[in-house]
Amino acid sequence: MSSSSSSYGLWWKGISYRIHSKGKDKWILCGLSGSASAGDFLAVLGPSGSGKTTLLKILSQRLERVKGAHLGGEVKSVLSGGGSVAYVAQDSGFFSCLTVKETLKFHVGLQGSQHGGPSEEEVVTKVVQRLGLSECVDTLVGGDSGGTNIVGISGGERRRLAIGTQIVGTDIGCIIADEPTTGLDTFQAEKVVETLGTLAKDQMAAVLCSLHAPRSSIFYQVQHVLVLSLGGRAVYMGPTSSVLDYFSSVGHSCPGHFNPAEFLVDMVSVDSSSPLEQASGERRVKHLQAQWEINQPTIKMPEEKEKDYTSETAEQSITQRRRGLGGLRQFLVLSRRALRQQVRDKTLNVSRAVASALLGLALGTINYKLGNNQASIRSRASLLMQEIANGKRSQRSGGCSASGRAGGYSVGAYLLAKLAIETPLDAVYAMLFAAIAGQMAHLNPRTRKSLLMSAGLQATAASSVGLGVSALTPSIESAQALGPVVMVLSLMLGDTGGMFAPIPEFIKPLARMSCIKWGFQGCMVAEFEGLTFEKDVDGVVPSQTKAGSCDGEDGSQSLWQKATRNIGRKAREDAERATMEKMCLGCGEEVLKKMGVSGLSVAENAKAQLCLLTTNVVITYLAMRAQGKSSGLQIQSFEENVKAPSINEILKTK
Question: Looking at CB atoms within 10 Å, which of 99, 316, 553, 626 has the fewest?
Fold first, then answer.
């Protein structure tokens, strides 16, 4: 327990958390109590599986609701100046093509301006200097960008930037960081811990963080330490300077010249390499747990001016930090960030442009200079379907980023900004593909603009389908599994005329939800209206008849030949040609009628595409809100009568 007498800080008592699954209860945390006063730096140590991350999420109101989970205890805070609790996750998501300064300015911009307060530039400069980011302030953050790794700042600078995004321009009373040193070298790890310690002193904030195997110099930078053992039970909570003395008093002394942090983690770990070692480790851990139950001090919860987390959601806390920021301002800030990311990601943009151009060249070469014979009808329709199917490649996962889940901006503003910036690019690449293929194939030049518009709208509608699929699925893996199914169904239902494959009548009503259907119909109308075609027999049935041929390839006679074998050769040829000419399609309107799309103009198909786009956006919006992907995290609430049995009770039972 913190030795500080400050009346500001964070308190927790009796934190117990269990998950009921397959008829059994698994305790993650068992009766944890403690406090962190303003200006103090508390480190949580323990082996993997001891519940460090779970505890920090509970204290920061970030523990998401899980089926069968029950949480007991209470958490209260009294933060100076009405400050809030900042949570720094292990993996903070950043836009790779934004600089450090732009990333910080983005978070400042979301908070809204304060009349008479410092400017955004002043606020960012102050945080940059405080966190030691001056040397990389104009460097791209870097990281993965759609499969491309962009070189950026170092891991230590990235962790300090993550801290900065949570404290910039905000009154912070408590900072909670989940393993901020993991994956860093010892020098960078020490710089991050030093930064947290400085923030605790300068801002009089209570700082809590979990540390994984810290070096001695890092360990002694923290004032207080909480040691957790497997099963989520504490074995020590108090001043760092007293922890080794306490362990000595219960029979476990740290050897000389040994890293105290490693010694503490070793004491609460169990070696399962052999039954003997495992039994010995379990006895040691249970002994330490039992001793702490006897020796731990009583936590006195604050009675006045408390901020009770049991009745407050994470979204309410975030809203306090974003008070006064309207939806339009959020949209503008988010759009500016998305635009910078899109424009600067040259590798991705060039890759998509080259891919679209190459596909256009490939299909244009295959269908080079299509004429106006009967065979060109099928070739034109096939090419248009290929152009529309290419638009489906623009379909990608939607959903809010990690920064969105922690940033507090609304799902509506995020979704509109994403659509406003990303979907026009999808349309551009689809139109590039269609323009190249259409020019090489000599498609209808009079309606080329209408054709490109239909292809662009198709790509936009396909992107909205991708957003909907992603929002309706619980994970990226699920979206990747469901996406191809949706794509195949859309392709199957898109050919409502049955030119390529007949569609059963009972399925046809579902075709109205296929973005392929409306895009294909729009392109068909744009291409075939006003075209005329030669009524050449060979274009209808090229292998069925040849002048002067009476037998089939196998020497047998066809039914037509048998029926006309008694008339003259010339008369038979004329009859055959007359019959075949009746089967020919002389104009584009006849083609559209046969395909079942006559009577629908390009504008009407575009209207249907926009309606489908709107429907998918609404579905995405509702799904993202329901799943808590942006505004309103579905946090685990506290319940009464959730109390883990004490270790002494368990030992007595055994």
Answer: 553
Exposure string of 36-58, with b = 16+ CB inside 10 Å and e = fewer, is bbbbbbbbbbbbeebbbbbbbbb
What are the angstrom distances between the C-alpha of 431 and each of 236, 327, 377, 435, 445?
65, 32, 22, 6, 15
Are the C-beta atoms of 503 and 495 separated by less than 8 Å? yes
Mean pLDDT, the chain, whole residue set: 81
pLDDT in tens, 157-190: 999 999 999 888 777 889 999 999 988 888 889 9
- Please give the backbone phi and psi of residue 405, each rounded to the nearest 5 degrees, phi first: -65, -30
588-595 and 374-391 helices, crossing angle to 10°? 60
At 226, is the secondary structure helix, strand, or coil? strand
DSSP secondary structure code for residue 229 in this structure:
E
Question: How would you list the strands of the sheet with 307-308, edge to edge?
Answer: 24-37, 9-21, 69-78, 307-308
Is residue 376 classed as helix, strand or coil in its secondary structure?
A: helix
Kindly report the pTM of this predicted structure. 0.78
Q: Is residue 270 scored above 60 in pLDDT?
A: yes
CA distance 520 to 458: 8
For residue 459, CA distances in Å to 126, 390, 432, 456 come to 44, 8, 12, 5
The conformation of residue 104, written as its DSSP 8-state character, comes to H
Write the CB contacts of 273 (distance below 8 Å, at least 6 apart in sequence): none
Q: How far apart are CA 102 and CA 340, in angstroms?
A: 10
Which tens digits make up the pLDDT trace of 48-87? 989 999 999 999 988 888 888 999 999 988 876 567 888 9
Cα separations in angstroms, 548 against 87, 121, 541, 577, 617: 86, 88, 16, 13, 62
Q: What is the helix (H) or strand (E) element at residue 190, kind and residue range?
A: helix 186-202
Distance between CA atoms of residues 391 and 273, nearest Å: 55
